[in-house]
Amino acid sequence: MSTHINAPEGAIAQAVLLPGDPLRAKFIAENFLEDAHCYNQVRGMYGYTGTYKGKRVSVQGTGMGQPSLSIYVQELFQFYNVQKAIRVGTAGGVSEDVPCRSIILANGACTDSALQTQRFGFSHYAPVPDFELLNTAYNKAKELKLDAKVGLCFSGDRFYDENETWKFWKKYGVLGIEMEAAELYTLAAEFKRKALAILTISNNFVTQEETTAEERQTTFTNMIKLALETAIN
Questions:
Q1: Are 62 and 172 in contact (CB under 8 A)?
Q2: How far is Cα 213 from Cα 210, in angstroms, rounded to an integer?
Q3: Which residues pair with 199 in a beta bridge?
Q4: H or E element: which one contains 186?
Q5: Distance between CA 202 and CA 59 in Å, rounded?
Q6: How far apart are CA 214 and CA 30, in angstroms?
Q7: pTM for this structure?
Q8: Under DSSP, is residue 229 helix (H, G, I), strand (E, B) or coil?
Q9: What is the DSSP annotation of 58-101?
Q10: Model confidence over 168-206: pLDDT tens digits?
Q11: What is the DSSP letter of 210?
Q12: DSSP conformational letter for 131
């Protein structure tokens, strides 16, 4: 057992989906996994293991923001030998080309997080996903006839940002704003594991389009199917 994940050895699969919302983890387990059982409820951060198309897959909530995700992902890598970690989360679109419910495969994650500063000081690390996972997800999206766009995301530490920094990142080609992917990619590099962020656009800063909180929690099933197909390959 680790500090924040109350699971015995062997309870967690080598491939794990990582929603920020623990209730989305519960939704995925109940609607997509067979024989799912809950291995973690510490701090209400649900974790489940089941099977998808006959292969073991886990789903673990991580909470919001990079510090919270960092705790859970490090414990999954360090104590449970997880090899594949796929974030399934939401992002705010900063391009007219990514309306609500669009899917982004994040091929890099810009960030303003102090976690990177603590690690690298004045150097600038480039957090990127595992290419094989990215390539698999891209090809699976084609098979499923999903319009998944490959592009940059920005992982910010602030949700309520009166400075509207999304306008700056839009200028440099970023497609979506979220809060976790950069730390996921950095930890995967440190522990030599495979990671990918698959993101659904929940709102668009340019067009002001938005989805509901319930929709964000219990739908976005295309992203979930794509992540599961990627995880088992």
A1: no
A2: 9
A3: 89, 104
A4: helix 181-191
A5: 21
A6: 16
A7: 0.95
A8: helix
A9: EEE---SSHHHHHHHHHHHHHHH---EEEEEEEEEE-STTS-TT
A10: 999 999 999 999 999 999 999 999 999 999 999 999 999
A11: B
A12: H
